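ingest -> validate -> predict -> emit
validate: passed (alphabet ok, no gaps, 396 aa)
predict: started
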Amino acid sequence: MSEGPAAGLKVIDVATLFAGPVAAMLLGDYGADVLKIEHPKGDNSRTHGPSRGGSSLWWKVIGRNKRAITLYLGSPEGQHLFRKLAREADVIVENFRPGTLEKWGLGYDELAAENPGLIMLRVTAFGQHGPYAHRPGFGTIAEAMSGFASITGQPDGPPTLPPFGLADGIAGIAGALAVMMAVNARQRTGKGQVVDLALIEPIMAVLGAQAITYDQAGLIQKRTGNRSDKNAPRNTYKTADDKWVALSTSSTSIAARTMTLVGWPEVVNEPWFSSASGRRQHVDELDGKVAEWIRARPMKEVVQAFEEAEAALAPIYDVSDIFEDPQYRALDTITTVQDPELGPVRMQNVIFRMSGTPGTIRWTGRPLGADNTEVFTRELGLSEAEMAELTKAGVI
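emit:
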């Protein structure tokens, strides 16, 4: 049993690919009892990405801290069992197209009639209403329509999509936050509620001031590659040993230290240098000076020099570098967990540390239907004969 900050919450995760399951994973990381319900054929996450020994490595992460059962919600028997589980739940996380749960008699109103405190997180591409509500969509659609892809990439290149589930990850974090807000509200009102989470919105929310800038100034942000459209210098640079580093000079003081380090201290006294917008107008000169200095030195020397100058620069890592970095090791960002099929595995840890009620990875993603017996017989009271009949019918 967990003593994390979400301990005591009973969460049913009936979502897939990927924002909803991420939200449920985060709640589980901090102590919630998460029950993952999959189709008897298995969740799509189990076949997503690389595997080892027949075990999906992504599933080991996104399924962690969740009990796993199988249940076909399209059948009357499955719907009956789901209602029984929902009576005792605090939270349901789902991402079916709008109207699907209602078609099965499992809509929020039906479930809340028996469990008024129920919170339902509904994750879809476009939200529960509007002209696009019934369109299918994944994170890629949100990355395209949110404005993210249009500002990502080189100025003379195509819009660029992220090589991972960025919109889903942001929405998953937002979903977990929304659930905990709803839990807090329930403490005051005694009532649950529906959280309508559209993938297109959380990613848009983190893109900064684009909306108000367009509204008030008519400006549309363009692709600038690794440069910033707001300040300079900011870019990625190749070192003498063909490594890459990234530099940010969002504050004037950091910009001044950087230009002094690379041998152009007099530019700090230019009137335009004192503002980010002024420096942005001279980006080619500033960027060129920094690139020339960095290209003449190996990465280790560059990083050390910038650290001594108290300027913000870092090496560009791949995952193998992350595994070796002493700061990540100190934080235990990549932690070791025992898996019954693979033995010790390393994966990203819980995303923040709490001094009094910390989160933890109690177990990795479990085999398909691993907890069917515990849930259906011990918690719902089904007999072995009933279990066998439901299994034969493809319900579990």
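The chain has two domains: 10-205+330-392, 244-315.
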